[in-house]
Amino acid sequence: MQTTAWITSTMGVGAVIAALIAVSIWLEKRFRSLAFLGSAILVITGGAVLANLHIIPSALVADKETMHPVYAFANDVAVPLSIVLLLISADLKSVRLLGRSSLIAFGLASVGTVLGTLLAIQLTAGGIGPESWKLAGQFVASYIGGGINYAAVGEALETSETMYATGAAADNIMTNLWMVATAVLPPLLRAWYPSYNSGGADESITRAQQRKQVAGISLGQMGLLLAVAFLVVWIGDGLAPMVNEALKVNIPAVLWYTTLAILLSLFTPLSQVRGGMELGHYLLHFFFATMGAGTILSSLVDKGPIVFLFLVILVAIHALIVFGLGKVLKLEVEMLAIASQATVGGPSTALALATAKRWDRLVAPGVLMGLLGYAIGNYVGIGVGTLVKAWLG
């Protein structure tokens, strides 16, 4: 798919994506109607358009080793660095105030995923075929803990390569669509829910204030933050295989560098160094572009449409439970959106949503909810898959 693109060189694709990011940030700043969406959504949409028109390569590949270098940079370098930078700069002292509501929101999102899966598989199992129970287990795991869990449960249940690829393609499209939805819904629903912005502040004001602060950022501050971020990710990547081998466990590296970043924010003056939010937010835009470039409509072939319908039903029930019961329980609409994104997309997309909408108080809760989903997703997914297999006979 990459060979059919007009622009394939590393510098060429990098130039297109950097230009897309710059234009999206300018549009967000220039037009209030587009500020409502935010630069993240503009970059995701632009990336999808460019990839589907074959101007840049697709990010949807069967083997990670064949992924374009710019997309590999976004996933393997930009995302880890942005997680560390944003957590170091986050106001973690306020996180304890969000503990109860974040756990309730996460619980609603997880229950919504399970119930949505059970209804969706009842309606679509005939069309999907004999491996429908496996797909049910994979999507429960994925929509509680993110894409890593989809892969792990697929391997555990021995899903065929064809069904695995079909599910992955539909999942990629739905995840990106839900990213847009969780960014757009809170401003629309704010009048009927408790909100962090109920005091009258909005994202556009917050963005304006933060842009003024950028003038005070020095090259030395940026250099220090990037050096610390690279060091923390390096340590996390090194600790993961050592501990996993010694203890016979499978703890992802993201858990280690997230923990280190939180400790640095709480117990060192690094949280006072300016520029972490801005650097992390910019780096995440490469991830947004990669998300968009992976939204390839032509990938929905054969059983793709029925699998996508399965996801539409799943996410609809998930959303109904999250935002319906969330309103009854008087949870903030932004927290509900972050919890939903943390389960459906994982910690990276929860972090992306929080920073894109400038919900800085929700950066750490979003990442932590995503990590909790990582921890339990495989168990719930395999359990539900086994249950559905017995149910369908």
From TrEMBL:
Signal peptide: none
Membrane-spanning parts: 6-27, 34-56, 68-90, 102-125, 214-234, 254-270, 282-300, 306-326, 367-392
Keyword check for Transmembrane: yes
Keyword vocabulary terms for this entry: Membrane, Transmembrane, Transmembrane helix
Membrane as UniProt keyword: yes
Domain of life: Bacteria
Protein name, as recorded: DUF819 domain-containing protein
